[in-house]
Design brief:
This protein is mainly alpha-helical. It contains six helices and three strands, in the order H-H-E-E-E-H-H-H-H. Helix 3 runs antiparallel to helix 4 and helix 3 packs parallel to helix 5. The longest helix has 28 residues. The protein is globular, with a radius of gyration of 19 Å.
Length: 170
């Protein structure tokens, strides 16, 4: 991790920005507990937002939301409705069923979900991991699907499943 700074303020800002990553890397005794905590919070956020998202997309249920604009992009594709438990792209149209949860794009949700499932060794007996998998599936993210499948294959190899059998299963 590189800290680019022109002054003391930007150096402190860089440290605050990367502080959670530094804690996860440096704390060897509790890093699995940190991962479990992050996975639980993320899994519950995903499923709490997925239910009203599906109701909103498949019914005429009106939801209270606030329009927001992501200022880094000046084109019209980054206008969203913030429904407090999920974000929906205004110009994406109602025809799209891609769930993005609290992320700007569904690809972010898919990729992050795939990595979290890999780190949790695809243990779907835990409810939060099953919720993360639901978020990955609802994102319709090709990148998330490919990363998730590759991670699952690596997980099977790590458990000692022969490569030939693994290829037949996938």
């Amino acid at each position: 991790i590189a800290f680019y700074s022109n002054n003391l303020f930007s150096f402190i800002e860089s440290i605050i920005h990367y502080f959670p990553i530094i804690i996860l890397i440096c704390d060897k005794t509790y890093n699995f507990k940190h991962l479990e905590f992050i996975s639980k919070i993320f899994g519950w956020i995903v499923i709490i937002g997925a239910v009203p998202f599906l109701l909103y997309k498949f019914s005429s249920l009106p939801l209270l939301g606030i329009p927001i604009n992501y200022e880094a992009q000046q084109d019209s594709s980054y206008y969203f409705m913030n429904y407090f438990v999920f974000i929906d792209n205004i110009f994406g149209g109602d025809e799209t069923l891609r769930y993005s949860s609290v992320f700007l794009e569904p690809g972010y949700l898919g990729t992050f979900s795939a990595f979290l499932l890999f780190l949790n060794r695809y243990d779907l007996h835990k409810p939060h991991n099953a919720f993360i998998l639901i978020g990955l599936l609802l994102s319709f993210s090709l990148a998330g699907y490919v990363i998730g499948l590759c991670g699952y294959c690596l997980s099977l190899l790590e458990r000692g499943l022969p490569a030939r059998r693994m290829i037949l299963l996938t």
